[in-house]
């Protein structure tokens, strides 16, 4: 059972507005009539309501030709809420809603108790109970609209036509009315046709859409079908706004020059906020930046740095300030491959293994550093704290370089080394992990690696350690250089060799010393020539197996 339009033409005596209209509005469904200003929505609804004659074609409601129904019969079957202002005289809202019962009352027009209960229901349905006793002439536009909707409901029609019913309503009332129409359609098996300019809301709740385009052609179907067909975009897109098929909403057409990967449940909302600042959201591939949802808000990652952002305002302000980045967020697929390779290089490194304290926090933690040195001393059986500190630091530096160069060699990416977490085992072995894998890419990763590994890890590590144990700075940098040599043997990259030229590393130790430490940590043959050694064919110094 439903409303059928067949080749319908509507308009005025001197002017035909729309022709060739074919559509169906099913009972139990909310059909939304959309179209630009002046295209003919009101004219169509007024024609369906019998307020003006059709200029051609036919309209059938539940099989009956609407043109052949008497006025009362029509009123029993359909109700109309129009935008026209009404002058209801000195009626209370309840009395006006009661008029909706007239097609069902006898000659006297007296309402029965059944009629009264329907009136109560209709007033309640539009959340208008508090308005019931008020004079309609004293109501606001929005309040009057509610009462008129209640009057239409009181008619208990099979077809309900509404022309922009939410035009005068505030935002919560619009949402509530749209929800109410949706519920009424399905629960009371009504065919509801409602015209509106509330495009996004309508597209969310409508079962079906009748869309009149600029040429007056009527397109019908589920909202998603019309979206996929491009009809919604073609009709409503402007220079400033465009319909986003995935989000089902209109989005600003900003000149987006940068892409930001947005992760977490707030991604859609953040994506919208970012679009206003010239960022396009992305879900895969390489991006200029990344925003992740965290327990405390968000984490912004851009230009090789991560920044805690407590709320959306902070995200927007951060996004606005970002320069056009040279260093970009790497494709997650590339990062995953690179991290797998790095894990193979560094057996004490795992992805997603040790959530908790970030490695950076240990450098300023005297107690943790003292404990690490103490446990290393116990393991090595040495009493001299300097030896223990140096050995422990060498192991950590080796891990950092292995992960860094491992990811560079495997995928031309640098993992988020500033997000590394750590655990100190009983024997002082330091285990690293990256609980939320991610990384960077850039045409030249050398400055980034220098900054992250040397400035953000090694330098603070050395400073922290020297506050706990009087170990020579040169020795620590020598260890760092040796560790880099070792990592280079596993993951030879031009970039790694460039890093050796960093002043602290280049000046720290003699080649002989580098080779010694390097062989110690990387467990190469205890004698003979190491073919892989970047120190060209040098004889390997006999060393014991590493315990680092
Ligand atoms: N009584 C009338 N006589 C002649 N033309 C009319 C009459 N009423 C409206 N029109 C014209 O019919 C066309 C369609 O108007 P209608 O009000 O149906 O459009 P609409 O789609 O409801 O517009 P809006 O979204 O702005 O409410 C408009 O060009 C309008 O000027």
UniProtKB/TrEMBL annotation:
Keywords: ATP-binding, Cell membrane, Ion transport, Iron, Iron transport, Membrane, Nucleotide-binding, Transport. GO terms for cellular component: plasma membrane. It holds the Pfam family FhuF_C. Residues 3-239 form the ABC transporter domain. InterPro entries: AAA+_ATPase (IPR003593), ABC_transporter-like_ATP-bd (IPR003439), FhuF_C (IPR024726), P-loop_NTPase (IPR027417), Siderophore_ABC-ATPase (IPR051535). One of its GO terms (molecular function) is ATP hydrolysis activity. SMART domains: AAA (SM00382). It is a peripheral membrane protein. It is found in: Cell membrane. One of its GO terms (biological process) is iron ion transport. It comes from the Bacteria. PROSITE patterns: ABC_TRANSPORTER_2. Coiled coil: none annotated. This is ABC transporter domain-containing protein. The lineage of its organism: Bacteria, Bacillati, Actinomycetota, Actinomycetes, Pseudonocardiales.
